Structures are given as structure tokens and as C-alpha cells.
Amino acid sequence: MSEEITAPESETQLAESAMADLAKVREEVAKVVFGQDRTIELTLCAILAGGHALLIGAPGLAKTRLVDSLGHVLGLQSGRVQFTPDLMPSDILGSEVLEQDDEGRRSFRFLPGPVFTSLLLADEINRASPRTQSALLQAMAEHHVTIAGHRHDLPAPFHVLATQNPIEQQGTYPLPEAQLDRFLLQIQVDYPDADTERRILVETTSGKDTQLETVLTPERLIAIQKLIRDLPVGTQVVERILNLIRNARPEQSADETVRKQVKWGPSPRAGQALMLACRARALLRGRLAPSVEDLEALAEPALGHRMAMRFDPSGKTPSLPELIQTLAAKAA
């Protein structure tokens, strides 16, 4: 039985106010993104935890629509970069240009790129070359970029929500491991069920224009992010996260399948991501502390892109998502 954790009264009041705001955020986004409750929740978990999210799915599954609506509802300045094979790093970060004034004096002026926004949509990120993909690396990790030796800070908050088409599709490039590790969660966007798709067919092809309400401000979002980091986490949940992370590494695992079939396991950063995401999901679901259920729900989105399986010609090895769920259930 999980231990009871009592938060201070002031923190409880702040959390209850945040819960009401976040419930309104989810309600607004659901007006235009149908049948994707899990995707909405996981994306919000990544943002509330202060991280970035990678949404993977076939074209036409409302990934871009989700990001656009989140920017509006959260009150964030948003920008978009359409990744293409000829995209250059300067097209994302910006560049310095040489200017001459009326008196003939020359100087360099920095022209910021689209990365200088609070919510950046990196659309179809795996259609660009690895060099261009990695241009986001410093921005995602350090929230600033360096151009011609000069540091330029990004707005606060700053989040990247990237979309990715399946690797099997023509004209796509796998993301480097270092780039993948910068995403707090990797979210699989699936096809809708029949009822949801029927609703999509009817409502999105009519003349109806749904207006979304702006619920938060950047300052309010930062305050909620700070609150989430202050939420207490029970010893049981901490120990299960620790055991899961260590048991997923072939060098430390007691699981025979992991030792034989996992090429590399999650780093400590994966545990940090899972801990923060569990706190965020707890608040989204009206709780003041994360539970084991949060861990099991978030294990695959937090670890799936931070691990790799060896090729098994026999076909008997479980898939990586199945293995992670098994390890999460066994963590004790």
C-alpha cells in the first residue's frame, strides 16, 4: 500500500488552483483534437515538467493541430519550422548580417531565427539531415544558442514539440541518439477509433470555426512548473523508478532478456525525466503526489527512445515497449 503524503496547506491551495487551470487547458484542447486524450496528457506532462516532446505518427493524425492549439491555450508565443532536406542550421537559429549605416560604418547585427519563441513546432524533424537536426541540441539543453561566439538567450519558458514521421517512410533520417535524449517524452500518436474518426469527418469538414480560450500565461505556466518540482514523491515510487532504470541496463540488470537483447539502457537522465513526468501527471489527474500507476503509464514514453534492442533473428524477443512495461510492472 502506498504511503500517504501530506503537502503543506499553502502548497495544497496552489496545487488545487493549478489543477483547475490544467483541467480547463485539457478541455479547451479537446475541442479541436478529438480522441487523443492520452496524447494530450503526455504532451502536457512534458511541458509541465519543463521538457520537450517528440510526437511520432503518420501524417494526418493532428500532431500539428495539437501543437498549435496548445500554444494558444497555454498563452505562449509559438513558432514553426518545417524541416526539409535542404534546411540549414542558420535557418533555425538565426545568423549575423553585415550592415552599413548612413555614415559608412559597418557592423554586424544578429537576426534571430524561429527558435526564439516559447513553443517551437519542429514539424517532420526527421526529414532534415542529422546536422540540421542537431542544431536544436544546444537550444533544447541549455535554452540559449551561440552564434559567431556570442550567446543569445531564448525566451522563458522554452519548449520544443517535434513531430516525426515513421522512419520507414521515404525521405526520412533517424534522429541521432544525443538528439533523442533531449526529448523528455516520446509519444506515439495512433490512428483514431471508428467513432472518433466519424466525428472528425463530420466536424472538421463543416464551416464551424471553433474558438479556443487562452487559459494560462507564460508566468502562470512557469509557476505551475515550479510547483510540480516541489511536489513530494513517496519512497516507494522513488525506489521503483530507481529499480526500473537500473534493471533496464544490460550491465546491471537481473533480467536475462535485458542482459542478452538490450544493446544499451537508459542513463540517469531517463530517471530524472520519469520522475518529473510522474509529478506532472499526478497534478494533471488531481493528485498531490505521484503513484506507481503514474510510473507504469509513463515508463515507455520516458524510456523507449533512450534504449535500443539487439536484432533477434528468432523473433521470440519481446518488442521494446513490451519489455519496458514488463520491467515497470516487476520493479519493486
Automatic annotation (TrEMBL):
Q: Gene3D superfamilies of this UniProt entry? A: Magnesium chelatase subunit I, C-Terminal domain (1.10.8.80), P-loop containing nucleotide triphosphate hydrolases (3.40.50.300)
Q: Per the database record, which ranges form the ATPase AAA-3 domain?
A: 52-185
What positions does the domain ChlI/MoxR AAA lid occupy?
258-314
- Coiled-coil annotation: which residues? none
Record InterPro entries: ATPase_AAA-3 (IPR011703), CbbQ/NirQ/NorQ/GpvN (IPR050764), ChlI/MoxR_AAA_lid (IPR041628), P-loop_NTPase (IPR027417)
The protein in question is named AAA family ATPase
